[in-house]
Amino acid sequence: MEKVRVVLYGVGAVGSSIAKFLLQKEGVEIVGAIDIAEEKVGKDLGEVLGTGEQLGIVVSNNPDAVFSKVKANLMVHATASFLKQVYPQIAKALEHEVNVVSTCEELAYPYAAEPELARKLDELAKENGVTVLGTGINPGFLMDTLVITLTSVCQNVERIKVTRILNAAMRRVPFQEKIGAGLLIKEFRERVEKRTITGHVGLEQSMSMIADALGWKMDWIEIDPVEPVIAKVRVEGEVIKVGLGQVAGLKQSARGMKEGKEVIALNFQAYMGAEEEYDSITIEGVPSIHMKIVPCVHGDIGTVAMIVNSIPKVINARPGLVTMKDLPIPSAVLKDVRVHIAMKTG
Ligand SMILES: NC(=O)c1ccc[n+]([C@@H]2O[C@H](COP(=O)([O-])OP(=O)(O)OC[C@H]3O[C@@H](n4cnc5c(N)ncnc54)[C@H](OP(=O)(O)O)[C@@H]3O)[C@@H](O)[C@H]2O)c1
């Protein structure tokens, strides 16, 4: 079987890590790279990744040129979180008959915030005989796919509560900046206002995916405004220092109501100095289930893995827009991607 030919769309922090992970796998080759960042366009991908070797792939800012030149099977997409913004990027790949796996948070369950764009993507993918999936660690797994999977051993489910707490001091600096660590409370609120701090994108998507999987018709879903977590102790990161009373990070919650009762509660917290990092899922039902992953799954490592591990699932899937709840249970690709492909790439 031929190797799976991948085009990267977005070689930022996550896209670069995905590229490096793909280079370690068998049965897959990177055949193109697209980005708009000035410091990357025109450079060899190896240089952009800092691997110390030339890969013979020049990063281009012209998607049409890339897709016309290389015959790709799949695009790994990692540029932005909102579907309105990335729709043209994803549509471009579908028009060129290329499957898509994307980190775009809203694409993880686009029926929630963007039903019309979801319909258009589904139609376009079907017309071109390819599949499109949004996934990652969260949304994509911890607050939705894993929760849905756990309910499979329940005879009844009354209520679900999911909490993810991560210590941002252990994460990369751009992530610490993204959550407002080191800011004064006033500065944090100004950035929320200007939408340069967006909070956690994905709560609405995760909640809607769980509700649909359980056949729950929600009265309403409420996403709380993002709030700062105020430092109770000084935290010294390598670059960012958080003083007492300054912003250590952020927290955001969401709740879903059904027949007047809160049936789903999601709680996300990311801040420097969190004493315990964990992912916990509590299902009240028959039986009740409590699961706690300590420390919480590392966001970047988990996202990179989930994107690459989803490649064969997407190639095997029916054409159209799919979500994690439509695919076979997720699993790791340990070596050769082709082992998991049902004879589709030639
Ligand atoms: N679902 C999940 O669990 C999950 C997990 C991790 C990340 N994500 C999401 O994945 C996305 C990527 O994350 P990241 O940390 O890698 O972000 P990043 O470091 O900002 O990288 C994004 C890259 O894409 C480029 N880009 C932006 N718009 C583009 C366009 N129109 N065409 C081509 N390239 C474009 C950026 O260039 P510029 O720098 O010039 O803008 C940058 O090089 C984010 O939205 C993030 O929230 C999701």
What does this structure look like?
With 346 residues, the chain is of the alpha/beta class. Helices cover 29% and strands 26% of the residues. It has a seven-stranded parallel sheet, sandwiched between helices. Strands 7, 8, 9, 12, 13, 14 and 15 form a seven-stranded mixed sheet that branches. Helix 1 links the parallel strand 1 and strand 2. Helix 1 (13-24) crosses helix 10 (299-316) and helix 4 (83-95) runs parallel beside helix 5 (115-127). Bound molecules: NADP nicotinamide-adenine-dinucleotide phosphate (NAP). NADP nicotinamide-adenine-dinucleotide phosphate binds at residues 10-15, 34-37, 78-81, 89, 103, 105, 108, 136-140, 299, 303.
Short description:
Helices cover 29% and strands 26% of the residues. It has 346 residues and is α/β, with parallel strands linked by helices. The termini are close together.
Which features characterize this protein?
346 residues, alpha/beta, seven-stranded parallel beta sheet, seven-stranded mixed beta sheet, 10 helices, globular, binds NADP nicotinamide-adenine-dinucleotide phosphate
Please write the string of helix (H) and strand (E) elements: EHEHEHEHEHEHEHHHEEEEEEEEHE
Helix content: 25-40%
Class computed from helices, strands and strand pairing: alpha/beta
Q: Outline, from the CA principal axes?
A: globular
DSSP helix count?
Answer: 10
What kind of assembly state do the chains in view correspond to? single chain
Largest sheet report? 7 strands, parallel
Arrangement of strands in the largest sheet: 3-2-1-4-5-6-16
Estimate the mean pLDDT confidence.
96
**Tally of strands:** 16
Determine the strand fraction and express it as a percent band: 25-35%
Q: Distance N terminus to C terminus?
A: 6 Å
